[in-house]
Amino acid sequence: MILPLKATVLHSMEPNDGDSAIVTQVKAAIRENLEDRYSSCQDFLHKCTALDPRFKSLPHVDDVCCDRIYNSLSTEIVAIEEEHEEAKGTAAAASPSHTEHPEASESPPPVKRSAMTELFGELFQTEVGDKKNTLQQVKKEVAAYKAVSSISLDSDPLLWWKNKESTYPLIAKLAKHYLAIPATSVLSERVFSTAGDIVTASRSALTADNVDKLIFLAKNMKVE
């Protein structure tokens, strides 16, 4: 929500004909202060916004910037998939060879086919593997994600991704990666404040384990 909120504030700070001199100066100061905010992490924040189904249409940026953001997401997804495949290949190469264990070289027992496979297997054969390369799959999935309507601003984006994970499996991996990042340190700072209330001078003999348990209970136990 950071960049959409920034764009909203900047838009509201545009000067109007009815503004007094002091109001115009204040608006100009606010705009000047906000213009360069988050410039060091702007690409990162753009990706977070695009992965939020509430803001994925990116109305606060122009079409060129929107295309660049989604192209960057596609490139990152492809890189993650290729890295994953490479890691699988490395793990397979590092695994012990079957020739080291003669008993493992015996042919495996035949796979038992289910009744559904026996009945419909010839007619409804499932294709194994996708002939399209990873980049084509990603582009197709990203295009479908962009085409679907944005959800309402009051909806839960995490719940939406939970329900749509099977529809957009490649983008969902990136959504988990980005949307799990805390946007503020307030919650963690509150934990430290709670710890300060618990570990006082008169309770300095508390063990570390008991402090952990008391903080956990203070943050999670609801007393009626």
Overview of the structural elements:
The protein has helices at residues 2-12, 21-35, 42-50, 63-94, 115-120, 134-147, 157-164, 169-179, 186-198, 208-220. The protein is an all-alpha fold and 224 residues long. The protein has two domains: 1-14 and 24-91 and 133-183, no CATH class; 186-220, no CATH class. Helix 3 crosses helix 4, helix 4 (63-94) packs across helix 8 (169-179) and helix 9 packs across helix 10. The longest helix has 32 residues, at 63-94. 7% of the residues are buried.
What's the average pLDDT? 86
**Which residues sit in consecutive blocks of at least 5 with pLDDT less than 50?**
127-131
Distance between the termini: 34 Å
Largest sheet: none
Helix content: 55-70%
The tally of helices reads: 10
Task: Report the structural category.
Answer: mainly alpha
- SSE pattern, N- to C-terminal: HHHHHHHHHH
Sum up the overall morphology in one term: flat
Rg over alpha carbons: 27 Å
Domain module count: 2
Beta-strand fraction estimate: under 5%
DSSP summary, beta strand count: 0
Outline of this structure?
The chain has 224 residues and is an all-alpha fold. The protein has ten helices and no strands.
Task: Outline the fold blueprint.
Elements: H1 2-12, H2 21-35, H3 42-50, H4 63-94, H5 115-120, H6 134-147, H7 157-164, H8 169-179, H9 186-198, H10 208-220
Helix pairs in contact: 3-4, 4-6, 4-8, 9-10
Keywords:
10 helices, mainly alpha, 224 residues, 2 domains
